[in-house]
Amino acid sequence: MAMQEVENKFQEKIDTEIKIEPKDWMPEDYRKTLIRQISQHAHSEIVGMLPEANWITRAPTLRRKAILLAKVQDEAGHGLYLYAATETLNISRDELLEQLHSGKAKYSSIFNYPTLTWADIGAIGWLVDGAAIINQVALCRTSFGPYARAMVRICKEESFHQRQGFEVLLTLSKGSTEQRAMAQDALNRWWWPSLMMFGPKDDASPNSAQNIKWKIKRCSNDELRQKFVDMCAEQVKVLNLTIPDKKLKWNETTNQYDFGEINWEEFKNVLAGNGPCNKERLAARISAHTNGAWVREAAEAYAKKQQLKEKLLVQ
Amino acid sequence: MSQQDWPLWEVFIRSKQGLDHKHAGSLHAADAAMAIENARDVYTRRMEGISIWVVESKNIHASSPEDAANFYEPANNKVYRHPTFYHLPDEVKNM
Amino acid sequence: MNPSSTNFKTKGSDKETEALYNYTLHLADNALIMGHRLSEWTGHGPALEQDIAITNIALDLIGQSRNFYQYAAIINGNGCTEDSLVYLRDVAEFKNILLVELPNGDWAKTILKLFFFSTWQYFLYKKLKSSFDQQLSAIAEKSLKEVTYHIRWSSEWVIRLGDGTEESHSRIMNALDELWPYTDELFIASDYEKQTADNGIGVYTNSIKNEWGEKVRGVFRESTLLFPETRLLQTGGKDGKHTEYLTSVLNEMQFLQRTYPGCEW
Q1: What is the rounded distance in angstroms from the CA atom of residue C246 to the CA atom of residue A2?
Q2: Number of domains, chain C
């Protein structure tokens, strides 16, 4: 088959919503883009555990403690599903981790912000997980089979994440003066970074067109961001808090919320590694991996010894 | 930094009401016991009473997508194997 | 939370109720502090899969503790809740064994600590299932399944580390050196343990010493570890005489409730 025919057949599958599976032929750029995108998603889940995990020991009730622990554990699981999906594209877990630890691979910048108070845990659940859900629901129809299936599994588990965050904020907003202030302060700090999660504006996003053609991406950045704003602008009313955007306003004509301009300088800075916690987050992951090396080696050594014993028994 | 890599295992799960094992995903483990326990912790956090199979990925042999046409064409010719081939009276439509 | 919920004494002043209350708190505190320590590994485990495994166990233990605390709150009868018991009692009122409040250390120390603890919980709960107290018996039965898995998981790791590499072997030997002195306390009964056991409610903790020892010996043999003979007793936790480690655990755990008293979370 001529290369053009092969490429046509590939695009045809995508156009007719047939999933591309790991052993199918695919353009090299398709493979590379998927590896980058899925692994970035995986890294985000893992690094994302850190800002929340550090509040587990300080959770103010047993119920909150258990919920937070379960949520963070879910995130580890999600990271795992996504690493597994990436590994079907002929790259090892070790290589992926090497990319993360060396700074070669990126992860969602939102996790480079610190969790200063308990209210931050609420804000992360409501906003960050909320944004993630919007993104992930769209990805359930992505063209690469393993990625789509991982997304379906993740989406099923994710809804409680957003709900528990919202509940935390709701409880605070109905509490003491200090608690209400805590909640508003967290919202003030997490709102804009959450909007940045959807990436640059469509006209500043170079790869988007090809990724949409290949259905690696199903909806544009701006589309998803708008959905998010519309959702939160309604939900915040229940919380009796204020979204820190003076330009946020319902637009009768377009039937959606207008909102203010994102500080793209901050976005670029954090993306480039100069966010408040970039170094710490990465250092924590590198440290866990390095300190865990002797454990992994021990398990492997033991497994090899057992295999040898079994071989000798058989003889 | 060590680059030891535990082998990759594919995980298959049969739920309590399920009829067969479905592929759930993969994970890294040093040995079969660890793989099964990891599978339990990772893929069955929300359900009980299930059966878990783990197989080292290298031991899975799959058909090649290019073979698809040759593998499955003969079946397409035997249209009487498909239930839609038969027209049944309304009374037994649920069969 | 209204003021009476920090009245940690039992409403009834009879000795039996008091002993049951203290015993239940002891069981609860053990599970909570161990679960709390394990949760510190979240996001820092040696492999992603192991992170998930150890947080599963932490969740199980916190769940167990909640069952015990909720029961203790009922016995208390003075308006205490599971949360006031956990977040407002001071160090001297906690009744956990010292073993569980020790820092995690490295993976070897954590695993060995968990192995000793789960094995103890297993034999304890097995007997507690026959308690005349229906609540304790029910909680024990429910928890037994989880604890059975905890022993399996932790003992396999003890074996992997003991019979893995030279480094892992030496690390777990160090862990054994550090932890062994704290294992005696498991089998030395406090007053409330004696009293509840006399009433057919609790368990004579020294009665499970042999079974515990056998299980540990068996796993040690497979791990090529030596069962230590020397004993340097470290006790007191069951009666509120703790190490500084518990103070720092509680400082962290209780800070929000203490800084903003009387709030809902």
Answers
A1: 71
A2: 1
- The CATH number that applies at residue C224 is 1.20.1260.10
Query: Cβ separation of C49 and B30 shorter than 8 Å?
Result: no
Identity at C69, one-letter amino acid code: Y
Q: What ipTM goes with this model?
A: 0.95
The whole model's pTM is what? 0.90
Would you call C46 and A291 a contact, using CB atoms and an 8 Å cutoff?
yes
For chain B, the domain total comes to: 1
Sequence-distant (6+) residues with CB within 8 A of B91 are none
Residue C142 CB neighbours (<10 A) = 14
Mean pLDDT value across residues C58-72: 97
Write the residue in B2, B31, B65 that is nearest to A297 by C-beta.
Answer: B2
pLDDT on residue A302: 95
CATH number at residue B40: 3.10.20.520
Residues of A in contact with B8 (CB under 8 A): 87, 93
Q: What is the mean pLDDT of each run of 10 residues along chain A (315 residues)?
A: 86 93 91 95 95 96 95 93 93 93 90 95 96 93 94 87 93 97 98 94 84 90 96 95 97 96 89 83 93 95 92 83
**Residue B24 CB: number of other CB atoms within 10 A?**
20
Closest approach of chain C CAs to the CA of A30, in angstroms?
27
Q: Are the Cβ atoms of B45 and A293 closer than 8 angstroms?
A: no
Identify whether B74 is part of a domain. Answer: no
Interface A-C: count of C-beta contacts within 8 A: 135
What pLDDT, on the 0 to 100 scale, is given for residue B2? 39
Question: What is the average pLDDT score of chain C?
Answer: 95
Q: Taking residues B85-94, what's their average pLDDT?
A: 60
Cβ atoms A104, A50 nearer than 8 A: no
Residue A281 is encoded by which pair of tokens? 């987050």
* Chain A stretch 167-206, residues whose beta carbon is closer than 8 A to a beta carbon of chain C: 168, 171-172, 174-176, 178-179
Average pLDDT over residues C177-203: 96
* pLDDT bracket for residue B80 (50, 70, 90): low
In a domain, B73, yes or no: no
Taking an 8 Å cut-off on Cβ atoms, the answer to whether A297 and B4 are in contact is yes
B19: domain range?
2-62
> What gap in Å lies between CA C12 and CA C9, rounded to an integer?
9
The CB density around residue C144, as the number of other CB atoms within 10 Å, is 17
Instruction: Sort out which chain C residues have CB atoms less than 8 A from B45's CB and list them.
Output: 56
Residues in chain B with CB shorter than 8 Å from the CB of C153 are 37
**CB atoms inside a 10 Å sphere around CB A285:** 21
Reported as a single tens digit per residue, the pLDDT across C114-129 is: 999 999 999 999 999 9
Q: Is C59 on the interface with B (CB under 8 A)?
A: no
Q: What is the pLDDT of residue B60?
A: 86
d(CA A135, CA A155): 10
